[in-house]
Specification:
alpha/beta
Amino acid sequence: MLAARDGALDELQERLYAARNDAEGGGRSVLLIVQGMDTSGKGGIMRHVVGNVDPQGVDITAFKAPTPAEKRHDFLWRIRKRTPAPGMIGVFDRSHYEDVLIHRVHGWADAKELRSRYTAINAFERELIEGGTTIVKVMLHISRQEQGERLMERLERPDKHWKFNPGDVDERKHWDDYMEAYTRALRATSTVGAPWTVVPADRKWYARIAVQQLLLDALEGIDPQWPAAEFDVEEQTQRLQETMD
């Protein structure tokens, strides 16, 4: 099913990219935000969903812990620099939501600061929407048991050791706190223009198909059109024929 719909997704993405400078329908873009606990399948979404469209029309950013330079700015400063240009599908593998999730869990920000950040996030996303960006926000919801099994697989397979981070085991101790943090964040930032979709992620195939469908829905909503030729097609056809044997 995933493969069968690749063609439709690829064409819509190409139309979006082709229309990026078209005065009639250009200026539109898509931002896919993917959040989830460790091992929830974010990498699989990048490879098996986003990876099946033309890479020149996609910009993927995997946000890590902020650098010292980034910490000297507002938490959205580094995010703004990675928002998609017209015609592009931007993908955030983790995002500005880390600044209200992990900060709540570890007490790095108090309730007042978190409320302020929720407000700033909603204003930021509203600004993107008004500028022509369709936002798709996905929370890949994996169960604690399934996460444990996926982490164990990484330990049991030498070819997966590079993906294992001992810190992931430490974070599992805060599972309930993370679920509470996600609940609060999703409730505070799921808006009419940028709603959250919680995708069950214990079955990788299901999560990938669901996210693919969300992208298809977003692009079909934009319905980008092939831009009209800025030259006389018949004239150029005749000119080309004259150069052929």
